[in-house]
Amino acid sequence: MKKIYRTIISLACLALTFSSCQDWLDLYPSDEIKEEYLFSSGDGFRTALNGIYRKLSTFDLYGSNLTWGIVDAWGQVYDKNRAPTSGSGQAMSKICNFNYKHSELTPTTDAMWNAAWNIIANCNNLIQQAEVADPALFYDHDTERRMILGEAIGVRAYMHFDLLRMYAPAPAANPNTRTFIPYVDKYPSYVNDKQTVSYCLEHAIADLKESQRILFDIDTESTNFNPDRRFVQKVAGEGAFAALRGYRLNYYAVTAILARVYLYAGMNDEAYAEAKKLIDEEEKTKYFAADESYYASDNFKNGNMKMYDNIIFALYSPTELVDWDSEINHLTDGKSESDQNYLSWSSKMLDAVYGIEKENDFRFKYQLELKYYGYNYRTLKYYKQVESTEYGKANNQIIPMIRMSEVYYIAAEAIYTEGDLLKIAEAKSYLEKVKKGRGIKTVDYSSVSSKNDFVNMIVNDARREFFGEGQTLYMFKRLNKVLTCDSGEIPMTEEYVVLPLPDSESNIK
């Protein structure tokens, strides 16, 4: 970790001239720029923040590893028998068999670890600089300064939380006073002690609440949150930096992530309260609509494969997603069906998860492709979409990070109280909101006689929703629930769901 904290904004050293809102997203690292120069202008601060977002979207982090890549392979999302075993598939094939120290996996997990701490280091530096910066440096003065500060604090919390979910047991497993990873909020910081799960969660929650406080008036007073304005709208000049808020850790995203963290921490009342803020906002504005009309077949045919209308926060990847999909899913397309490899669901697991809802569910009808003589279904979420439509362009670039559907799941699980008919009805209404938005008009509760039964219904739906988005393993881990997959049943014990620290970090106390 020492070498990471010696890095001074190297990932944010980027070109400083822009002509449109796309330019603010299409940023790539160049040579290192001295820190005092970088933070001498508003452009420098924008460059630093955009560099952080671009690093988040790379293969090492959410462009692959922490979404559809090794985290979903680890979560047994894919059928091992059809999964690729060459190139990037090597690491995925090792982690799905829990071979954490295999030489084909450790370069990937080491790169992931290093990239994550580099993000945190650069967030800490940016936070410290933004806290004391002169508002006159910025195009939108103190509003822009606070926007940058609030987002950087939120990203710091987000990254720590995902490191915790990978490298420590969940609270439900009673980790008690054992320590696992540091929580670092200073720059530079060369020596950092490992902390308990509860310590890390408390600090992530505190950071998210501070981020939420800073961003509240910036985003709630804006009208920039319908889907087109979140992900598509073109804005020229310096004002472009404040556009396309769906690609940034906006107030609504921070609120959704805070609900996610609270639920993971077992703080159901707090999780519900945060989720309810977004549900109430959705009722008024329809910013993140899950309504069925948004996902008619024409929209899928026009390229809306990721249903981006429902995404609260995404990362931007201008070309890499399509390249990585080609590498992992389409390298063997020319071979006979029996020799093709790709990320897919087996028909056995698909039937178990979808059940009788399969034929009506848009996620089955439009997001999956029947392969291998009817035995497998390849995911189309990351398949290159037509570039001639705005839907297609947006879907090719979007890395989903959190959706409104997850907010409904959180509220449903958190509010369900056995014996309280009103709360049970409310919980069901939230699950139905997601299901009906995915084409399932009637929801069958005949198998539900307890909260555990209801949570199983949420889990079943979420496995469809989270496919290729890196959340499935964490859901089972949080619930301490046995994961049923093609290989059998995987218990949520540490040998299966806690990554060992890289060998280079063995000196962390």
Descriptive notes:
By secondary structure, the protein is mostly helical. The chain has one domain (2-329, 377-499): Serine Threonine Protein Phosphatase 5, Tetratricopeptide repeat (Alpha Horseshoe). It has helices at residues 2-5, 21-25, 35-38, 42-56, 70-74, 89-95, 106-132, 141-167, 197-220, 227-231, 251-264, 268-285, 297-301, 320-329, 347-354, 362-365, 390-397, 404-415, 421-437, 451-465, 472-479, 494-497, and strands at 179-181, 195-196, 311-316, 344-346, 368-371, 376-379, 398-403, 483-485, 488-490. The strands form four sheets. The protein has a three-stranded antiparallel beta sheet. A hairpin with a 2-residue loop joins strand 8 and strand 9. Helix 18 packs antiparallel against helix 19. Residues 1-22 form the signal peptide. Belongs to the SusD family.
**How many helices in DSSP terms?**
22
Shape: globular
Helix content range: 40-55%
**Whole-number count of domains:** 1
Spatial ordering of strands, largest sheet: 4-6-5
User: Which spans of ≥5 residues are poorly predicted at pLDDT below 50?
Assistant: 5-9, 11-32
Q: How many strand segments?
A: 9
Strand content: 5-15%
CATH class membership: Mainly Alpha
First-to-last CA distance: 12 Å
Q: What structural class results from the helix and strand content?
A: mainly alpha
CATH third-tier fold name: Serine Threonine Protein Phosphatase 5, Tetratricopeptide repeat
Largest sheet properties: 3 strands, antiparallel
Radius of gyration (Å): 22 Å
